[in-house]
Design goal:
Helix content of chain B: 10-25%
Radius of gyration of chain A: 20 Å
Order of helices and strands of chain B: EHEEEEHEEH
Shape of chain A: globular
Structural class of chain A: mainly alpha
Largest sheet of chain A: none
CATH architecture of chain A: Orthogonal Bundle
CATH class of chain A: Mainly Alpha
Number of domains of chain A: 1
Number of strands of chain A: 0
CATH superfamily of chain A: Ammonium transporter AmtB like domains
Structural class of chain B: alpha+beta
CATH topology of chain A: Ammonium transporter fold
Bound molecules: adenosine-5'-diphosphate
Helix content of chain A: 55-70%
Oligomer: heterohexamer
Distance between the termini of chain A: 61 Å
Strand content of chain A: under 5%
Number of helices of chain B: 3
Distance between the termini of chain B: 11 Å
Number of strands of chain B: 7
Strand order of the largest sheet of chain B: 2-5-1-6
């Protein structure tokens, strides 16, 4: 593949970033797991670990190929299936200075965490067997094609010039919309009353690991240890902080005091929102984007959800869906070629076209994800049944699905 | 005065509280216990080793009431807790010799409510 | 013999223990419970959803005493637990039919201390 | 009917349950408590600051039984719990005025078993 | 900025180190959080997350400039405010082979954790609003100037030749002294009796994350992936182990048995103590420094504190203050130009001057920090009141400050 | 040492990998700690931290030398004692592009975790003082020599051409066999009944940190940020996922449902098993190896252990012993010079010799480890007594060994 040569520094960074993104899935497990009732903690942890196992294998076998092999229209086809041709040599179409296999494994961790994000919507009431099948099908028929459209060689949105640095469309919009769909179909939890998080420190631990891992997620997407990676890193941290502070103050204004759950939720919303923009915007823009992330996701969670009365248990839609969509649009506004010459300018820098592309991309993604997720859900519901029985739900997923309990009550 | 002690299924607590409130029984004390009864719990399995898991999580409710409230309270608990399946639990009624409200140092029936 | 059951504010436990020890009441059993009383707890808020948090953490103390100690014990508990605010708690007094010290198999009043 | 309340060493629970089952006493309710008795616990030390650790972990067992089972039950508990060392615990026996099986709404002695 | 060129390996290392140092703040949150009463865990977590958010934004806006812009005497002025001129090109005055922005963000995480360290002193009794204000003011008026003196271009202690590789003065002495001041003014907790840690495993988790992150803290301060970084890494691990073992044996000698809390506290003390010395000393010196860290911090915590009866709840002064000061002095003794030719020799290698500079630097830092912290504290006390009311304190900070509880009691 | 030059990218990767491997020991602490009774959590955490402290110092003083100094037959002698000659310059015999000291500290973390793995066998019943002595002696007389044989310059197994990329023999077989020996001699726990894990989320956290850290363990063993590191990284993740899924299905087949504990145990088994093979095999082979890891370790834990009735409390032998041995043999089957030209071909690629070498190496390791561990154990038993008294065991190690409790019962 030409006169490309592997750069050890870039490779070191991408490998490390891959490890960081891998850690985000367990991080998410604790972020979500701390928020559910004590009797459902294992249900959440299990789904996250299962997503890691299943998608890792799917990706090696054919997922990566579907997403990144040269286009066959809808998705990438099977040219790279079984990692054929994915070896030590770089593929300059994706990353010219690192082994192609490093790009593959970095992308794998994105494919892993995306279905895991959806867990927040149907937490505390989905059958584990159905979750397994759902993850496999959803990854194959939703994640892989959309990743191809946006990032794959020949993908139509990529060709159109859409900007999505680290997955605002591919990861957060898809997961967020899928969360909305599943929350709507699966219905509310039996005990509707808000239940306090059973272990908020676990949620904080999860948020910390997510923040930590997100440096790999975003700055790793530079696929090199260069100035762009650094800029992305800074912008990521800035947006998270800004959104965390914003949510803190929103809580104070609307509810009379600041909260830990609000602050960490804000930070995660900021991270989700900056994701597509992170490689294209300045720190100043990141402060603004973080602010809007805090405001809009707060409002979605506090007002939209009660208003429409769907039970997105852990706000996967409110945080990742809203955040992702917001971020994709923000990219069309704040992107600057001063930060990333391979990007484009946004509205603020006089380019009106970009935001239209962004809106188109996010719109198509929403529609496709909505429909495809709906079909997959219904299919599984026919085959296995998606929701656990009432008794299992009351008993908790830990006991009913896995015959285990999270904590002993006595020594 | 009586002290009513109910052992119920954890997930019926909300219903029981609701029924009690309807009857104006608002004061109660709750704790988490493990119960061994006729109910067969789920066998837990850890690395292939089966744990008959004979102690199941239950909720214990303690309510001190004056005589005229005893039957109302028992009925309310039954209404909230009963599903008809084993494991629904038991209610124990004990004689309460005295009751003191610490804040006011009142004693007897007046201190209960 | 009586079994004295006190429900108190968690942060008064130290004071109550102190008062009891002063009166030579050294043997007791403590557990953590949730109480619903007249006290309005703090409304908890999770992502904007208000939790009336009607079950507040309390400490339950069980003390078995001989008759001559009943009043001393009650007074000591009141002394340690009373702040004058709602939520101070209650003391319940039950008749104790028998008491056995497992170590010695002694029974009755002698086994209590 | 009696309500038997036993406070025992945590690690004797298995033995006590075994002895009770032998005697066909299968229904019981267990909880974790802290006890202050004659037993001197281990002094805990955190960064050089000594915590006399006067509250030791204990297990509380509640068993409601009909009169004819009272002695059997007490004996079984003693058999399972006794080691002869301080800290073995106590058994308290209370009068049980009524007992209701929630599932069937049966009352009295028949509801106990 | 001349003919400097970015090295991908160095950049990869500094980015990774930045992520590691970021993780230290949540690590600290768990280290501290595990030690408080159950009703105050969220209070601690919240303060740590808030420090991360607030200082991240302050740093980007003007904090970095105050600390690292060319000197205006007291601090660095506003030349780099809003990250003006802080971009992809390296600044050879600080780090010639990585983007200047990478240096900026690496330093950011130091500014974040320093005020978080102080939390240990006033844990379980400070108002959250006052904490927010305190953090902002303290960072601006204590951390930023002192960072400038020691590390900034034209800083007077830097010019004098003080050695502080990774923040023994800038981070640990300042935080430790501020801890002492605040512990003295805020007064003892209401329930004076020692309370056992509510969750020692959390404290151990925190210590593990601190140790892990400290590799970034110290070895990242080499600002390159070179031999010096490796040496610093080794020395850091060695001092932590040595101090951990020492405390273990001190516990055994003075209290009759070894303890988990002692061992992890010792390790953290060793890490704090080696910090200023880590880029200048040999592994053998690190064993000795670790030993002294274990001995002195143990004695401070076990005898000094009870003697003077201040309530430094989690020993922020005893561990970071004593450790930091000790380390700065030890640097003047054990530093060797064989390890770092850009450093200096210490007393042991025949240079008496260095230790005098070290003593001067630490002395001035103590005095300035003491006074400035005192003033800031009193100011906030007038405006907002620093300490929560008695009732709030008994209720716990989780409920009283944030209307949340850490753990549910029932399912 | 010749015309070698330090590569910053490689150094960055190895430093980072070292930090990752360091984190595995606390990770293991939580993996194990979550599985024991609540009253023994600190006992486990303490042993892990103590292993980290003790072996870190031992390694610097003489352990590294014993393992990696040029051969004196049985072990490496004292040429590198006190890190003499272990400095900034690379040692091409081990790693030509990074400082020799980086190789030293990377290897240190392997020496740390190996004795920690054994803890699983005697959990809940070993005296802490005896553990300290055991760790020191075992590291010195078992780990160091065997590391020398397999990896040291002049080591006889290395000379013979054995393949052990990241420690299937050196780490997992030795720890696993030592676990078997100690479990056999120390005897069963007093309360024989299975006790449910006191905190399964902690075990899951530990497994996540192990998985995360294992990227450093295996891919770091490439000692450079090159294609081989990437390949190793991919293969590691693949085997873990494959084994996790396999165990999940084994649980489903044999016990009627999937479990969290099974899934994470499977993943760890897969990681242990792929370790020796990770630098020599393809992703496809990794799927197969992971599958066998899941099957065999599941059977060992579920049937072998009950059959022979030894009380390997946390399955250190069943997972690491069986996994390690399996992996060493699998290396002899699946290794391919297409993946690693410095390796060899295995049975599948027509080389019958390799598997014989592998079998010999693992056989000798088993015998030596068995005997040496037995002797060390018996020696300590005479001096200090290895097992705690019955009362201490019932009370739990936290209180009896450390006078601490993990969690408070009340606020
Ligand atoms: N005799 C008893 N003494 C103490 N606790 C009892 C007794 N009988 C029942 N319980 C408690 O009630 C719970 C429910 O009892 P169980 O036999 O399972 O249901 P049911 O009452 O519907 O037959 C038990 O788990 C136990 O905690
Ligand atoms: N009748 C009752 N039965 C059971 N528990 C009670 C009863 N009355 C009070 N309690 C317990 O005492 C606690 C304090 O009661 P509360 O009404 O808040 O305070 P006060 O007694 O000062 O009015 C309650 O939270 C509850 O746990
Ligand atoms: N009078 C009492 N009232 C309440 N609880 C008691 C009483 N006496 C003993 N206990 C409980 O029993 C436990 C064991 O008592 P202790 O005095 O230590 O042992 P022993 O009964 O063998 O002398 C105590 O920790 C406490 O929980």
């Amino acid at each position: 593949m030409g006169n490309t040569i592997i750069n050890a520094g870039d490779t070191a960074w991408v490998l490390m970033a891959t490890a960081l993104v891998m850690l985000m899935t367990p991080g998410l497990a604790f972020f979500y797991g701390g928020l559910v009732r004590r009797k459902n903690i294992l249900g959440v942890l299990m789904q996250c670990f299962a997503a890691l196992c299943v998608v890792s294998i799917q990706w090696v076998l054919f997922g990566f190929s579907l997403a990144f092999a040269p286009s066959h229209g809808f998705w990438g086809g099977f040219a790279f299936a079984g990692l054929k041709g994915v070896g030590f040599a770089p593929n300059p179409a994706y990353a010219p200075t690192i082994p192609f296999e490093a790009f593959m494994v970095f992308q794998m961790m994105f494919a892993v965490i995306t279905p895991a994000l959806i867990i927040g919507a149907f937490a505390e009431r989905m059958k584990f067997s159905s979750f397994l099948l759902f993850t496999l099908l959803w990854t194959t028929f939703v994640y892989d094609p959309i990743a191809h459209w946006v990032w794959g060689m020949g993908g139509w949105l990529r060709t159109l010039g859409v900007l999505d640095f680290a997955g605002g469309i591919v990861v957060h919009t898809t997961a967020g919309i899928a969360a909305l769909v599943t929350a709507l179909i699966i219905g509310k939890r039996k005990i509707d009353r808000a239940s306090p998080p059973h272990n908020l420190p676990f949620a904080a631990l999860g948020a910390a690991l997510l923040w930590f891992g997100w440096f790999g997620f975003n700055a790793g997407s530079a696929l090199a240890a260069n100035g762009l990676a650094v800029s992305t890193f800074v912008v990521t941290n800035t947006a998270a902080s800004s959104a965390g502070l914003t949510w803190m103050f929103m809580d104070w204004i609307f509810n009379g005091q600041t909260t830990v759950l609000g602050t960490i939720t804000g930070a995660v919303a900021g991270l989700a929102t900056i994701t597509p923009a992170s490689g294209f915007v300045s720190p100043a823009s990141a402060i603004i984007i973080g602010f809007f992330a805090g405001v809009f996701c707060f409002l979605a969670v506090s007002f939209l959800k009660p208003r429409f009365a769907y039970d997105d248990s852990l706000d996967a839609f409110g945080v990742h869906g809203i955040g992702g969509i917001l971020g994709v649009i923000a990219t069309g506004i704040f992107a600057s070629t001063l930060i990333n010459p391979h990007g484009a300018n946004g509205l603020l820098y006089g380019n009106t076209k970009q935001i239209l592309i962004q809106l188109l991309a996010v719109g198509v993604t929403i529609v496709y994800t909505f429909m495809a997720t709906f079909i997959i859900y219904k299919l599984i519901d026919v085959i296995l049944g998606v929701r656990v029985g009432e008794k299992e739900e009351f008993m908790g997923l830990d006991l009913s699905q896995h015959h285990e309990t999270g904590y002993t009550l006595m020594e | 005065m009586k002290l009513i002690v109910a052992i119920i299924q954890p997930y019926r607590l909300e219903h029981v509280k609701e029924e009690l409130y309807k009857m104006n029984v608002n004061l109660l004390t709750v704790s988490e216990v493990l119960g061994h009864g006729r109910q067969k719990g789920i066998t837990e399995i850890y690395r292939g080793i089966k744990e008959s898991g004979n102690l199941l999580r239950k909720i214990r409710i303690d309510i001190a009431v004056n005589e005229e409230f005893v039957e109302t309270t028992i009925k309310a608990i039954i209404k909230g807790a009963k599903t008809g399946e084993t494991g629904d639990g038991k209610i124990f009624v004990l004689d309460l010799k005295d009751c003191i409200r610490i804040r006011t140092e009142e004693r007897g029936p007046v201190a209960i409510g």
